[in-house]
Amino acid sequence: MNDSFLFQLYNAFPLLIHYLPGSHRVFFKNIAKQFEFIKEKIKEHQESLDFSNPRDFIDYFLIKMEKEKQNKQSEFTMDNLIITIWDVFSAGTETTSTTLTYGLLMLLKYPEVAAKVQEEIHRVVGRHRSPCMQDRSHMPYTDAVVHEIQRYIDLAPNSLPHAVTQDIKFREYFIPKGTTILTSLTSVLHDDKEFPNPDCFDPGHFLDESGNFKKSDYFVPFSAGKRTCIGEGLARMELFLLLTNILQHFTLKPLVDPKDIDTTPVVNGLGSAPPFFKLCFVPV
Prior knowledge:
The chain is mostly helical and about 280 residues long. Helices cover about 45% and strands about 10% of the residues.
């Protein structure tokens, strides 16, 4: 717990955080710049919008805004468009990069897994073109490794806080409107009935007896329910493409014996973060 004078002052008078000096001022300034960039892009989309030929998420959102402009209860507002775009890039960038970093650490720890992924990449994709999403269905082991990385590292143990929008009865519990809900994703991702030896890194958790990829309803790193991560599809594509492109061209070499690599997260609260490590990328 931080017991500094400024920390206690901000806790007692939170409005002061916008007026007193500190590193948080740079943080707020950077966010403001990001918002201005997003507003500029939205304006560009508005000026060239073709209702019969939407190009991307912003176009679809703007069209929905226009259709629901008479609905005062609509969630399709300019403020929600801005914050949703910011969420996708800010949250998605950090979580994807952390997952990829942690994934590289796991492959250093288990070089036999990395070698099998490389073998599958070179057999299915070859070395003269880049992997694409169409390759994933033909690469069950690689797909299983990506899933196991996300399951094992448990990036967001309790997801993000959500609030109940109305009074609701769930099983034998009554949950009043406004109650904050935290979902324990760890209890699902590390369920020992679904994943034998859940504390062990094992791509076999997502493979059947024939070596085919096996889906699991217990794979919930992006949270659960209707408010699951909006960027799930994008993140899953990024992780597959980035990891396969790296291993297509490089062999990962640790600077210490793999047995001595510690994969225990250095942060394990709202999110998990891997410990600092070094590696070499050796061209294939």
